[in-house]
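User: I'm new to structure prediction. If I give you an amino acid sequence, what do you actually give back? Let's try with this one:
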Amino acid sequence: MTDSQALQYLEGFKHIPRVNLKEKFPAATDEGLEFLYQCLTFNPFFRLTIDQACDHPFFADVKQEKNKNTVDPEIINLEFEDKELEEAQLRELFLAEIKPYHKK
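Assistant: Good question. You get back a string of structure tokens that encode the predicted 3D arrangement of the chain. For your 104 residues, that looks like this:
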């Protein structure tokens, strides 16, 4: 981060050490854990971009054809995003959005 006000604001919080994901997810591969750490990096300058995340070796087994994996250039807005919803309602709406794209 380079914004001095943002840095000053963050200095007001106590430092919390990084969580050991290997302890939380002992069955995870080193590659999977590395991917998680890179995605969860607080500083956006060091965090993976969406393109870097899609190209990460962690997904090598599931990527069949590179040209099939695309990022939509437009922002996707779901109808329910601006509503106050309970978790159960939110899950139902997400499943309704996902179901047409799910192939067995």
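You can read the tokens as a compact description of the fold. Here is one thing that stands out. The chain has one domain: 4-101.
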